[in-house]
Specification:
alpha/beta, about 400 residues, 14 helices, about 25% strand, Rossmann fold, 8-stranded mixed β-sheet, binds cytidine-5'-triphosphate, 6-stranded parallel β-sheet
């Protein structure tokens, strides 16, 4: 995803500066080219040598130091993105007011591309009017501000100010660097399992974790789409920047999908909707008694198939979790439910399906063509799916 992208990592002098070493490693693992700029105060917390080894690249410590004086213009011209991790209150203030007192602040004035800034400081400092006003100025100017987490801070206080983990910032970086080619489109995405109650304490559900659907929602958001995510119960955090609707049962999911269908351009039905629900929902908790019991189920509506009959301009994407004859069954579903694209996987394969972070899928098109993708992270699967959707949307057959 970040292969070959040129990232400048600015590190300022906060106690969380050590986490920047991990961010460099993570960026390198995704094959980004990283150049690190350390402020004078940052060097009190972390050695340039650490960063030089991890980044496998030169580290910049000042405007007049090293073999190349005044490197800010060249560095800014070369980079695709600047991330400041962590950003002290001082850096936030200087950036907000356009001051150029060292290499990093000077570079910010020369750089034209996306800037991701991750403030981390004492909670009172963070909440102060001055810092909040400065952050607002930066946001208005288009800076991507990653808010700090709330928790125990180095000073012993509890409050907002903790630097978010490298993987959170990595996701923001990925999002900032993908093309905004879905701008103007509205995506309706469903995710997770549904829960079908038997009584007030028991329900029938399935093993869906929601990871694939959430990845589709995040990827579409990153590419500029407006996203409505309708999610069954999952343990995943609500993704930022999407309209989020939580539901429980298949019937509730159907209702929300139908409400949002007209405004949607693309619907991605990733949810593992329960095909059946208990016929009777006991109003009181069922008591233990007989040695055997039977539950009668009734069929739930097939939300995707219904959309297939209702669709006008919408492009429909379905998922098919199979355990054999994957392509044939996916093609049957494609026809039966009148969808435009099926993402099929074989749930028996290692590294595919439910709780995994990766997936192995086939994208199966209406014209009979299919594309087999290797095992990859669900976010990257989502990106490939969106490439295909965009291709179809433009009238061709995308890959
Ligand atoms: N789906 C749906 N409503 C249902 C069941 C499924 O909208 N009641 C959608 C899923 O979100 C998915 C697709 O239909 O996009 C395929 O679901 P899957 O469970 O694989 O197939 P089914 O159609 O339920 O068929 P079967 O379980 O017999 O394989």
């Amino acid at each position: 995803m970040l292969e070959g992208r040129k990232v400048i990592l600015g590190v300022t002098g906060g106690i969380a500066a050590y986490k920047a070493a991990e961010l460099v490693s993570r960026l390198r693992a995704e094959r980004a080219a990283v150049k690190v700029v350390l402020t004078r105060a940052a060097q009190e917390f972390i050695q340039p040598l650490t960063m030089r080894v991890l980044a496998e690249n030169e580290v910049y410590t000042g405007l007049f130091e090293g073999s190349e004086p005044l490197p800010h213009v060249r560095l800014a011209a070369e980079a695709d993105l600047v991330v400041i991790y962590p950003a002290t209150a001082n850096l936030v203030g200087q950036a907000a007011w356009g001051l150029a007192s060292d290499l990093l602040t000077t570079l910010l004035l020369t750089f034209q591309g996306p800037v991701v800034i991750c403030p981390a400081m004492n909670a009172q400092m963070y909440n102060s009017t001055a810092v909040q006003e400065n952050l607002r100025r930066l946001k208005e100017r288009g800076y991507i501000v990653v808010p700090p987490e709330t928790g125990r801070l180095a000073c012993g206080e509890v409050g907002p100010g903790r630097l978010p983990a490298p993987e959170i910032v990595l996701e923001v970086i990925r999002g900032a660097l993908v093309p905004k080619d879905l701008t103007g489109l509205t995506f309706l995405v469903t995710a997770g399992p549904t829960r079908e109650p038997l009584d007030p304490v028991r329900y029938i559900t399935n093993r869906s974790s929601g990871k694939m659907g959430y990845a589709v929602a995040r990827a579409a958001r990153d590419r500029g789409a407006r996203v409505v995510l309708i999610s069954g119960p999952t343990a995943l955090p609500e993704p930022h920047g999407v309209a989020f609707i939580r539901v429980d049962t298949a019937l509730a999911m159907r209702e929300e999908v139908r409400k949002n269908f007209d405004a949607a351009d693309v619907v991605v039905m990733c949810a593992a909707v329960s095909d059946y629900r208990p016929k009777e929902v006991h109003p009181e908790k069922m008591k233990k008694g007989a040695a055997e019991m039977a539950v009668t189920f009734v069929q739930n509506p097939d939300i995707l198939a219904e959309l297939g009959t209702l669709k006008r301009h919408q492009l429909l994407v379905g998922f098919a979790a199979e355990s054999g004859s994957v392509l044939e069954r996916a093609r049957e579903k494609l026809r039966a439910k009148q969808v435009d694209l099926i993402v099929a996987n074989d749930v028996r394969q290692e590294g595919a399906g439910f709780e995994a972070d990766t997936n192995i899928v086939w994208l199966v098109f209406r014209d009979g063509r299919f594309l087999e993708l290797p095992r990859m992270d669900k976010y990257l699967v989502a990106q490939r799916l969106l490439d295909a959707v965009l291709g179809l949307w433009k009238g061709g057959y995308g890959e």
